[in-house]
Structures are given as structure tokens and as C-alpha cells.
Amino acid sequence: MKGILLLILVLTPPSFGQKYTFGTCPSVQSYVFAGFYTTFNVADTYYVYAISPSLFFHQWNCLSFQITRIGTTAQYTVAVSGVNKFTGAPLSANGVLTVSGHLATATATTVTDLFTFTFSDGWKSFSESYYLLETVANLDYIVLYGCDSFGWGKKENALILTTTTTITPDVASRALSALMAKGYPLHAVRTYVGCQT
């Protein structure tokens, strides 16, 4: 039994607390809308409505992302703020968002945009890539989902961002349904309600 446990630990990649299950990753293509390639600019202040459990953000509550575009590139700086869920003390981290695979000639059947966030708080770092599952033309909310295969299983993670501290039931339903459509169980994400920061 100890040998099996050791084998599982060796074959499991480093985890930031994402969901690990047996099986294979679903087929994912990034969501696009009319004018996506001419209007796309994710720079804004976003509030985290839902996120996969993460060691990096384990002690955080009421997260917000201040995303600023670097020139006209597909890179953005990200300033994260929130509060310690145990003490209420303010927390902050800085990072970079890179959007890759974003080609002006791509179509809805070939798009493979990846949103890669990299954060550091000076002590530990975090890096995760997500597909854009769903959004709207004004980017009021963004549903991101990532999945990596390993061994006999997969590592999944999810992130839902909104531009307001409150989310309407309709938007919440659409955002969460986009995750469920990929087989991601809703009990595997932390949701934040009433985080007026």
C-alpha cells in the first residue's frame, strides 16, 4: 500500500490546490464573438466571483484584479488585492497576464487563446493557463477554464471574473453553466458574494 501511495505522489505534478481527477481533459476552444479580434482589450478592474482552490490564494478573500495593458501588446500587468480571510488584513500581489494564440486571421474553429496568469507576492509564485470559455462583447464577465493531462488523470482549474462587485443571477447562471458544460463540478470552486471592496 505504501508503494502505491508513493507512486501516486511521484506521478502527481506540483499542485496549487486545483482539482485532480481521473480521466482526460475535454476538448476546449476559446469563445469568440462578433468583432472579438478588433475590440479585444481585457484591461479593466475585475472582481473574482469564483476560483478553484489554490495554495497561492488560500488565505485570500474578496480578490480583485487591476489589469493594465502594456502598450498595444497581448501582455498586461496585473495588480491583485484582497483581504486575509482569517484576519481581515489587506493582501496584495503583482503579476502578468499574457494572451497567446490570439491571431487576427483565426476563426471560431481554430481559436486557441490562452490566458496565462503569473503572480508573485515576494514569497511564493503562481502560474496558470486558461481557455476563454465565455464572455460578452463588453467583457462584463469572463469565464476561464484550464485543464492539463497527466498520467491517468487531469488537473482542472477555473476562474470567473466580473467588472462589478455584485453579479446578477442571470450572469452567474450563464458563467457557472459554461463550467458545468465542460464537466467541472461547481462544488470545486470557491464563490465570493458580497465582497464590496
Structural class: mainly beta
| CATH superfamily (homologous) name | Calycin beta-barrel core domain
**Helical content, roughly?**
10-25%
Q: Strand content of the residues, in percent?
A: 35-45%
Question: What's the layout of helices and strands?
Answer:
Elements: H1 2-11, E1 19-22, H2 36-39, E2 44-51, E3 60-69, E4 75-84, E5 90-100, E6 114-120, E7 125-135, E8 141-150, E9 153-162, H3 169-180, E10 190-191
Give a brief description.
With 197 residues, this protein is mainly β.
List keywords for this structure.
197 residues, mainly beta, Lipocalin, 8-stranded antiparallel β-barrel, 3 helices, 42% strand, globular, disordered N terminus
Task: Tell me what the structure shows.
The protein has an eight-stranded antiparallel beta barrel with strand order 2-3-4-5-6-7-8-9. Mean pLDDT is 78; it is low at 1-17 and 102-110. The chain has three helices and ten strands. With 197 residues, the chain is mainly β. It starts with a helix and ends in a 6-residue tail after the last strand. It has one domain: Lipocalin. Helix content is 13%, strand content 42%.
